[in-house]
């Protein structure tokens, strides 16, 4: 049974150059329903969480200034978004969706957030269209509740960009293993140190990418022995992506998702999936690649 977080908050007013990347959040649920991949009952409406869940991974001063519009101009430019109350509602709702996905995945095995994967948000700053780190907050929430029985978390970040904020937040937290497999020449130019970084050369294709993933992920499961997995399934690894330098096909991206989710299912590991990035010029390429992630989940847990 799939649970999917989605709220119609992602279309808040934005400058024209920001609207196209956000369009997928409107189109993806429509496509899932149109193709009959999930029923309407699979969707739930997330809510902003109590501040305590955000403050486990974000500095109180930063969060207060973010909420009240007190970021400096350089700080605001680094996020890529103009500040507005609607933006803060959007970001806190996305984070609340991933938190609720974590609760539901413990019950049903999997839950997916139509948005999320805001892995460039650091403890005390935002950057790269990320203001609050949703997967970090959800991982910290699980670890803070002993009754949930989650003692070790694995974050599998396969967005084309390194999960620098997530790596920084958990750099001194041995219970969270951060794994980022990303383009070596992609943003951010200054990388942080994840527990495992695999930086890929430009033009990495399906075969090379999938071979490396298959060599790596089973070993991480055996060594770290996580109780819970967060998966960032960015589709900016596609050859068509404007901001990526890798060369995966949509078929290769689909096989990537099937492999990661299949391993989680095989090991009976609850998994939360967040969509992450996707910037191909044709919106259909972005949506179709994201839809494949949901197809993979539905085939295993539907």
From TrEMBL:
Record keywords: Hydrolase
Phylogenetic lineage: Bacteria, Pseudomonadati, Bacteroidota, Cytophagia, Cytophagales
Stretches assigned to the Histone deacetylase domain: 22-292
Pfam families per the UniProt record, alphabetical: Hist_deacetyl (PF00850)
Family, similarity comment: Belongs to the histone deacetylase family.
Keyword Hydrolase: yes
Matching PANTHER family: HISTONE DEACETYLASE 12, HISTONE DEACETYLASE HDAC1-RELATED
Annotated source species: Hymenobacter luteus
InterPro entries: HDAC_classIV (IPR044150), HDACs (IPR000286), His_deacetylse_dom (IPR023801), His_deacetylse_dom_sf (IPR037138), Ureohydrolase_dom_sf (IPR023696)
GO MF terms held by the record: histone deacetylase activity; hydrolase activity
GO BP annotations, alphabetical order: epigenetic regulation of gene expression
Gene3D superfamilies per record: Histone deacetylase domain
Protein's name in the database: Acetoin utilization deacetylase AcuC-like enzyme
